Amino acid sequence: MNSKDKKAIVMLLDNIELRSKHTIAELQLLVRQIDSIKELIHRNDVQQPNYEQIKELVQNETPSPRPTSPNDLIRREEVITMTGLSRSTIYTLMKNSEFPLSIKLSERSVAWRRGDIQNWISNKIASNN
């Protein structure tokens, strides 16, 4: 395997890592992809895996959507995606009691209940109608 292929593999693994949002289904997909890439690398075949084979392997596997629950804890990036609000706007609205409060998970980590965010969105839609 040449250095170009090795760099491509590292780039793809970095891409997989960035795409993962730490849900169980996505992490399981990540493990399957990494295992598949390892298998390609460790094969004793004459033909070594190349960038195109690995790229195809990664692109062909898509995560299956997992069922959601109102009690799911979701992180800030998902809240931003769901609401279209910026980080600073979310915290300003929280300060003014106009947005659901976050739940402190650890010293530097917070999350929101999915149901609270969905209710906030529904209330915004209803108040605009």
From TrEMBL:
In terms of Gene3D superfamilies, this protein maps to: 1.10.238.160
Read off the Pfam families from this record: Phage_AlpA (PF05930)
- Superkingdom in the source lineage: Bacteria
The record, for InterPro entries, names: AlpA, Prophage_regulatory_activator
Q: Know the name of this protein?
A: AlpA family phage regulatory protein
